[in-house]
Prior knowledge:
heterodimer; A: alpha/beta; Rossmann fold; 3-stranded parallel sheet; B: mainly alpha; two-stranded antiparallel sheet; 2 strands
Amino acid sequence: MTYASHLTIAAFAFSTSLAASACAADPIKVGVTVTQSPPGSVVQGTQVKDGLEVVAKMLNDQGGVLGRPIELVIEDTQGLPEKARAAVEKLITRDKVVGIVGEHQSSNVLAGMEVAHRYHIPYINTNGWADAIREKGYPEVFNPNNYNRRVAMAAAESIKKLGAKKVVAFAENTDYGIGLAKGIGEQLKTVAPEISYRFDTLDRAAKDYLPAILPLRADPPDVVVDVMLPPAAYIMMNQVYEQGVAPSAKTWFYDASGLADYPDFWQNIKEAGKDLLVFGLYHPKMKAPELAKTVGDAYTKKTGAQPNRLLYQAADSLLVLTDAIKRANSTEPDALVKALEATKYTGTRGEITFSNESGYKFHQWLDIPYVTFQVTEIGQKVADSPLVEQPGQPLDPSKLAHP
Amino acid sequence: MLSGALAADLAVNGLVTGLFYGLMAIGLALIFGVLRIVNFAHGEFYMVGAYAYTIIAARLGVPLFVALPSAFLFGAALGWVVERTLMRPLYANIGSWGLMRDEYAVIVTFGLSLLLVNLVDKAIGPYAFRAPALVSASRVVVGPALMSGQKVAAAVVTLAALALIALFLRFSYWGRAVRAVSQNRLGASLAGIDATAVSSLVFALAGGLAALAGALLSPIINASPDVGAFPAIKSYVIVVLGGMGSIPGAFVASLLLGLVESFGAVLVSYQYRDTFGLVLLILFLLFRPQGLFGERGREV
C-alpha cells in the first residue's frame, strides 16, 4: 500500500468514528407544548416550562439518557386547542420528537393527544384534569398528574365535612371547568345526596360576573366553590367577596383549582383570599420523596421562586418518560408505550404507577397525594398556611378559622 | 320572579356598567362621526390606559390623582400620534371625503390593534396586574346595591368625564367644530374650520376616554394584554344601536345595553349574557337600521 492509500484509509476511519460519536451524542428530542402568551394561563405555562428545563438540565448533567442529552423542543399554544393540535403535529413530523410532555390545559390535551394518537407517539399529560382525557383510552397517553374525579371526590368529602346544605360552584367554560363542576355534583350525590348543588358556567374572557353573583346575596349558599383559573378566577373571587357572599360568617369559599400557590395570587386578590379553603396538590409541609427537595432547590436557584405543584408535575412527566426510555433502551414508540405501562418509578411526589382499568382510571396514577389548606392572613405564603387535611389527616371543621 | 331588592340591585349595577360602556363607546362614536371610519384598535387604547395607570401608580409610586389624568393624557397622546401617522395619509390631499378608502382604515386600525397587544405582551409580559384602587373600601352600600369602593369612585369619575365631554361639545369652539365636521366635512372646511386639526383632536379625545375607562377599571378587571377585546366589541354594538356617530345615542345605548345584560343574565341565563347585545343589534338592523338617534341617510 502506498502512503497515499494509508492516508485515505486513516482519513476514512477518522471521519467514520467522528460520525459515529456524533450519532451517539445526538440529542433525544422531547416535545413540549405550553402556554407562553395569552389568552391561556401563562403563569401555569411558565411554571411547567421552568420545571421541565430544571429536570432536563439535571438529567443532562448526569450524562443524559442512554448516553444522549435530552433536548426540549418548546412550542407556545397560547392556551388554544387549535394551536396545541398544530404544535404537536409540528413537533412529531418536523422535529421528530420521541414523546410529548408539558400540556397543562385539558382542552389542549384533548386536542394534542389526538395527533399523538394518530402518529402513535407517547403523550405524557402534565396537568390536564378532564376525565375525558382518560376515557378516550388511547394507549399512548399517560397521566402522572391530577384528574377531575380525584378533585371531585376530595371536594365532595370536604363539603360534606363542612356540614353544608346548599352549595354553588362557579365553573369556567372549558373542559376542565365544566368537567370538574359536573364531577363534584356526581360525587356529592354519592357521598351526601341531601346537599343541594348547582354550578354556573362563566365565560373565561368576561370581566363582570356580578349578574351571576347578585342572586346569591339574598340567599347565600353554605359553600361557594371556585372551578376557574386565573385571571378570570381572580375577578370572580373579588366580586364574590365584594358582594359579601363569601368568605363570610355563613359561607365558606372552597377553591377547587388550587390558586393560592400561583405567583400572582396576592397581586390580584386581597381580602377575598382570607379564610379561603384551598385544594392543593402540593404544600411545603407535606411529606415528599428526597428527589422533591433536589428538584425544588434547583428550581429556586433557576427562577428565584418557591417550588409549586406544577414544577413537580412537570418534573415527573419528563422523569417517567426518560425512565421508560432507559428501561426500554430505545426511543421507538412501541417499546416506550410498553415501558410506560410497566412504570414503577419514585418521582418527586411518590411512587408512580399507571392503572390499566378503563374509563377515567385508564393510564392514570390513581394515588395522587392531595391536601387542603386554609389561608388565614392576607398575603400569606402557602408555606405559612395551616395544613387542615392531608393523607392520614381528615378535615376537622372545628379547627378552621372562621371569617 | 325577581324580588324587588334583586331588581333594584340589577338596575343599579346595570346602569353603572352602562356608564363604563359609555365612556368607551363615545370615543368610538366621535371617531366615526368625524372621520367616518371604524377604529378597530379602540379596545387597545383601553388596554394602554389600564397599563399606564397601573405602571404609573403601582410601579412608579405616583399619587393616584395624578396617575389617573396621566393615563388619560397617555391615551390622548397615543391617539393623536396614531391619527397623525396612520390616519392622516388616508385622506391627505383628497379633496372629497367620499373618496377615502375605507378598507385602508380597517386594515390599518386592525393591524395597530394586533401590534399594540403583542407589543405589551412582549414588553411588559402576559401576567394580569391589579392596579391600586382609588378607594380602598372593599364594600360600599349604594342604595340597594353593594359595590367595591373603586367601582363607586370609577362611576363618579365617569359621570364627571361624560358631563365635561357634553359641555365641551356643546359650548366650546372646538366642540362646535367637531359637530360641524361630523355634519359636513367639506362644508365645515369651506367655513374655515380646520377639519384636519379636528380629526386629530377627535382621535386624541377618543384615545384619552378609552384609556381613562381602562385606568378606572384596572383595579377591578386587572390589566392584561387582551383586556380591551370585550369592551371594544360592546362599543361597536353600542355605536350601531345609538346611531352611527351619535353621541347622545351612544350614551343612551350604553345604559340600555348595561341594563339588558344585567337583567337578561338573571331572567334568561348568564350563559347568554354577551349575546343579548348582539340580539339587540340584529333587531335594530332589521327594524331601525339608523339606530336610536341616527339619521337614515345623508346626502350633500
